[in-house]
């Protein structure tokens, strides 16, 4: 197993790993990081299984990308994840105006449940009992369980 742990370069208060007007942080995670990993580790190929994992804003990205690209990722995990981009607003000084406004780019729930909820990779979602995102994570879990 090889772990690639990229950062968005501390872009502002965080990129959410979504497409922006001037940068595509999503494409970077989905395409460029795996390609760079293949260059650094020849055992990793274009057909190597990929998982995506994140914490907080990264958890939002992991869930959203797993829903948007269910054929690309074999598993996803989110720890104390924001479920909606708006959850991140209190943490960010700058505006999300440059972020994509597409539903599947601003809502992990919509990305997971809108297009192909029966084709999702295995998901692991955990959140601390005192975490401000706990109720949103529980609601997402409930919606996923109901969808099957």
From TrEMBL:
<dbReference type="Pfam" id="PF00756">
    <property type="entry name" value="Esterase"/>
</dbReference>
<dbReference type="InterPro" id="IPR000801">
    <property type="entry name" value="Esterase-like"/>
</dbReference>
<dbReference type="InterPro" id="IPR029058">
    <property type="entry name" value="AB_hydrolase_fold"/>
</dbReference>
<protein>
    <submittedName>
        <fullName>CAZy families CE1 protein</fullName>
    </submittedName>
</protein>
